[in-house]
Write a structure and sequence with these properties.
Helices cover 40% and strands 10% of the residues. By secondary structure, it is of the alpha/beta class. The chain has a nine-stranded parallel beta sheet. It has a six-stranded mixed beta sheet with strand order 1-2-3-4-5-6. A four-stranded parallel beta sheet has the order 8-7-9-10. Keywords: Leucine-rich repeat, Repeat. This is Leucine rich repeat-containing protein.
């Protein structure tokens, strides 16, 4: 009856107005708009309260151009929900709406404001309408009414469309009991005026314009130019700063040095390219400047080291400057100086000789007793003070000027890593005894190192330090070192073992960005953990098993805080077979192995009994093991973009699946294998809610699909289906059918079936003309 205006008017003439109201659907809005206002309102008046709210949903969720016509009719009714009157006001100032019609606004306001006490958001919306109309005094009155009725005043405070109201007398007073607003964008800040802006979030390199806002206390900004940094350094009240740097070239060391020394600045976070300088590091830097009263050149160098500015400051620094920087109170500065010194300092020719003495200056990672024993093996000694036999000095961190004294005295300086390399060449150190003993010890230590009991971990560390470290335990030691929940002695012991036994490339990688990465922090996502493990392995290829390290990190993290998700995706880690230690994560809830080159799953995949989600997209699987059906809790299975020539029969033994994807990606090159037929077994997947078969070469659907009572979404995009089966209209819960790119015939049969599906409330997406 909603086919066209004539049909609707015939229904009105014959008294079927109630039937018209009941049958009104979203797709009938075009016909609705073509009716006269009196006709539309007659139909609305005959409808139920729920039907009127449904029409309001069409207005709120439909096209902007349709909303005024729908709401013009709705606001004439006295018994709508307050939320609906509020939605009507919101459409008046929608960003894509036409300029406000004052008469329409008057009608909407008259209908909505009596309901403000029951739904205070109405006063916020009314304030926006009056602002658009230029009546600022009424804006203040509406905000005051919202405040009296316990409205969410902070939402009005943070509404940037009302930013120009802040200079108005009386407006700011309404928010005096709240924290100052966070202005988002320079346009809003300028509209509010410098006096009102104390907190600002801005992008696009605001540059020198920031200097206008002399009251700024909190700034979150991204920038790519020195002028923005310089303007921030000139803000006298700046107390908190979060800066996201998008510089294409080097950072300006001098301007950054000015900025970190702004007297009022208490919190400063600086992020660039995924690497962050944290507030604690900057506070430590400022404290170090003040405590040691460092001269300007040294301050510039320390800032350049901490921020990795790359503007030539560190390259121009001499060896003495960098050795002095190893005395800094900021670990990141010391580590950066050490990395540069590794290329500047060289061991004396000839290495260590019998009778040579070695003196330490500062803190080192190695156990001094172990180091003394290793020196004794080549006839050298570890000296407390320099003497005639002193061959070289080892510059450690926080040396309190002693390394500089040795340098000034002409004693050759080297780093701890360079000393270990000398010792390794002179007397290679075996990591374990006999092979059998080493394997047995490694197994025992592995169990202890992965124990949840800190006492077991401490025992393992002590045993390894006393009896040597068997091979194959570097990943376990890294996890112990990074676990911030463990005590310092345990973590320090693990760090010393890594310093003594890890290959040089791994030691350098651990001392770099990975040292500042806390994968156990509350905000660390599975992606962050995967990224940290991958970045570490990339810096020292061949030294660690990154998948094992990632597995150990996930197993060690608190499941109550982080859940149990192992995320291996993006092609960063590749393996044809699932490593056996992954199956040890028996309480894993979500396993994602995407684009890893996986060709098969192990038969005992069922050991992962806690899995509820398994994502195996973009691999090279051709079959599935029978053991996958033992995953009783599995509800979501993604097998998209694999190489299945037929649907694995084991899937139909997994009747508890809720989501299943067998899709292919249409943006990939021609796929080597497509599904061309489906087995007639889908009636066994009675709990399936979403099924994705997109871009497979399917010409027909099996009749068993009609017996899937819970299917809500079916994706058939890009398939070779030419005719839609009639039984689609019989599926009781189907709500979404995706058909774009399918090879459907553009005939009356398909168009009629699509129309009937839409009449049942199914959202059908198709590129058929007139469908």
């Amino acid at each position: 009856m909603w086919h066209d205006v004539a049909a609707v008017r015939e229904c009105l003439r014959t008294g079927r107005v109630a039937a018209l109201a009941r049958s009104l659907k979203r797709e009938n809005v075009a016909t609705w708009r073509a009716l006269e206002p009196v006709e539309r309102r007659e139909i609305l008046a005959a409808g139920s309260a729920s039907k009127r709210e449904e029409v309001a949903g069409f207005a709120a969720g439909g096209r902007v151009a349709e909303a005024p016509v729908l709401f013009d009719d709705l606001v004439t009714l006295p018994d709508l929900r307050p939320k609906t009157y509020c939605a009507a006001l919101e459409t008046l100032y929608h960003e894509y709406a036409d300029p406000i019609d004052p008469e329409r606004a008057r009608i909407y306001l008259a209908a909505a404001l009596p309901h403000g006490a029951a739904y205070p958001k109405i006063f916020h919306c009314a304030a926006r309408v009056y602002f658009e109309l230029g009546d600022r005094d009424r804006v203040v009155r509406m905000v005051a009414a919202g405040k009296r009725n316990d409205g969410s005043l902070w939402l009005i405070r943070d509404d940037m469309a009302l930013a120009p109201m802040w200079p108005h007398p009386g407006y700011a007073e309404l928010f005096a009991h709240l924290d100052p607003p966070l202005f988002r964008g320079m346009e809003a800040a300028r509209a509010a005026g410098p006096a009102a802006v104390r907190r600002l979030r801005a992008g696009g390199s605001p540059g020198g314009r920031l200097r206008e806002f002399v009251n700024l206390e909190w700034v979150d900004v991204w920038g790519d130019d020195e002028e923005t940094l310089a303007a921030l350094a000139d803000l006298p009240r700046l107390a908190r700063l979060e800066f996201s740097a998008h510089f294409r070239g080097p950072l300006p060391t001098g301007t950054l040095t000015r900025l970190v020394q702004v007297p009022a600045l208490e919190e400063f976070t600086f992020e660039r390219g995924g690497e962050a300088v944290r507030p604690g590091q900057i506070r430590a830097l400022r404290t170090d400047f003040a405590r040691r009263d460092l001269p300007v050149p040294e301050r510039l160098l320390h800032v350049a080291l901490l921020f990795a500015t790359g503007d030539g400051t560190t390259e121009q620094a001499g060896v003495r400057d960098l050795v002095a920087a190893m005395d800094s109170g900021v670990p990141a500065v010391r580590q950066a100086a050490k990395r540069l010194l590794a290329d500047r300092l060289t061991a004396p020719e000839g290495g260590l000789r019998p009778g040579d003495g070695v003196v330490l200056a500062g803190k080192i990672d190695s156990d001094q007793a172990v180091l003394a024993d290793r020196l004794a093996e080549v006839g050298a000694t570890l000296q407390r003070r320099p003497g005639p036999a002193t061959r070289l000095a080892v510059a450690g961190e926080q040396h309190k000027g002693r390394a500089l004294a040795h340098l000034d005295a002409g004693v050759p300086l080297i780093l701890e890593s360079q000393l270990r390399d000398l010792l390794d060449r002179a007397a290679p150190q075996p990591l374990s005894g006999a092979a059998g003993d080493g394997e047995e010890l490694a197994g025992r230590l592995r169990v202890l190192l992965t124990s949840p009991d800190e006492a077991d971990i401490k025992l393992a560390v002590d045993l390894a330090r006393q009896g040597g470290l068997p091979p194959g335990l570097l990943e376990e030691l890294i996890v112990v070192w990074k676990d911030t929940r463990l005590g310092r002695p345990v973590r320090g012991g693990a760090q010393k073992l890594l310093a003594e036994h890890a290959p040089a490339a791994l030691r350098d990688a651990l001392a770099g960005a990975f040292a500042r990465t806390n994968v156990f922090r509350d905000s660390a996502l599975p992606w962050d953990v995967m990224s940290a493990a991958h970045d570490l392995a990339e810096l020292c290829p061949g030294t660690i098993d990154e998948v094992r390290l990632l597995t150990l990190l996930i197993a060690r993290r608190d499941p109550d805080r982080f859940g149990r998700m192992l995320d291996i995706c993006g092609g960063w880690m590749t393996f044809t077979h699932l490593p056996p230690y992954v199956l040890e994560l028996t309480d894993l809830g979500h396993l994602r192995i995407e684009q890893a080159g996986l060709v098969e799953l192990p038969d005992d995949i069922g050991r992962l009994a806690g899995l509820h989600t398994l994502d195996l997209g973009r691999n090279q699987l051709t079959s599935l093991p029978a053991g996958i059906s033992e995953l009783r809790d599995l509800r979501n299975l993604d097998l998209s973009n694999n190489h299945f020539a037929q649907v694995p029969s084991v899937l139909f033994a997994m009747g508890d699946l809720v989501r299943l994807s067998l899709a292919l990606s249409n943006w990939k090159p021609p796929w080597p294998v497509h599904l061309t037929t489906l087995p007639d077994l889908f009636d066994r997947l009675t709990r399936l809610v979403h099924l994705d078969l997109s871009h497979q070469h399917l010409a027909a659907l099996p009749n068993s699909m009609r017996a899937m009572p819970n299917l809500v979404g079916l994706n058939l995009r890009g398939t070779r289906l030419r005719e839609l089966p009639e039984w689609l209209t019989e599926m009781p819960k189907l709500r979404q059918l995706l058909l774009e790119g399918a090879s459907l015939d553009n005939d009356a049969v398909n168009r009629d079936l699509i129309a009937r599906l839409r009449g049942r409330g199914v959202a059908v997406w198709t590129d058929l003309a007139d469908a």
